[in-house]
Automatic annotation (TrEMBL):
Residues 3-64 form the HTH asnC-type domain. GO terms for biological process: regulation of DNA-templated transcription; response to amino acid. PROSITE patterns: HTH_ASNC_2 (PS50956). This is AsnC family transcriptional regulator. Keywords: DNA-binding, Transcription, Transcription regulation. Gene3D superfamilies: 3.30.70.920, Winged helix-like DNA-binding domain superfamily/Winged helix DNA-binding domain. The keyword NAD does not apply. One of its GO terms (molecular function) is sequence-specific DNA binding. The keyword Transferase does not apply. GO terms for cellular component: cytosol.
Length: 156
């Protein structure tokens, strides 16, 4: 979808505050509220705006430790009914500690962003969940010491 300057301005404003009123958006875009409403609906219908969410700082709800875990899976098995990748992809969707999972190129297969309360919670997740999964061969963890930049906004 082609985005013009007004679409980009609207997207930047909505990424800053998803609850901004159409009147405020209209004033920022130099359009009427009804024109802004039509544009926003077009962006939603096209999937450019996927959803609206409340952003919850993890540490405010007791999830003070963030870990990035590189995961290597076992290679394909002889059993076509047991595909390690498919099993892992399904399992990761059920693990509440995992808030992001990306498939990677290179030495490791996946990168997980995991939010836990503390080191004990992390240890339980690793030993009782991740390493117990039959597809997982190895993992390597890095812990976040300090966040230098954290945004959900994409550059538009």
């Amino acid at each position: 979808m082609e985005l013009d300057a007004i679409d980009r301005r609207l997207l930047r404003a909505l990424q800053q505050d998803g609850r901004v009123t159409y009147d405020a958006l209209a004033s920022e875009a130099g359009l009427s509220s009804s024109a802004v409403l039509r544009r926003v609906r077009r962006l939603e219908d096209a999937g450019v705006i996927a959803s609206y969410v409340a952003l919850v700082p993890p540490e405010r709800i007791g999830l003070g430790l963030t870990a990035y875990i590189n995961v290597r899976l076992e290679k394909q098995t002889d059993n076509p009914l047991r595909n390690p990748r498919d099993l892992f992809r399904a399992a990761v969707q059920t693990w509440p500690e995992v808030v992001e999972c990306a498939a990677l190129t290179g030495e490791m297969d996946y990168l997980l962003r995991v939010l836990v309360q503390d080191m004990q919670h992390y240890a339980r997740f690793i030993s009782d969940t991740l390493l117990m999964h039959p597809s997982v061969q190895d993992c390597k963890t890095s812990f976040v010491l300090e966040r230098l930049k954290n945004t959900t906004a994409v550059p538009v």
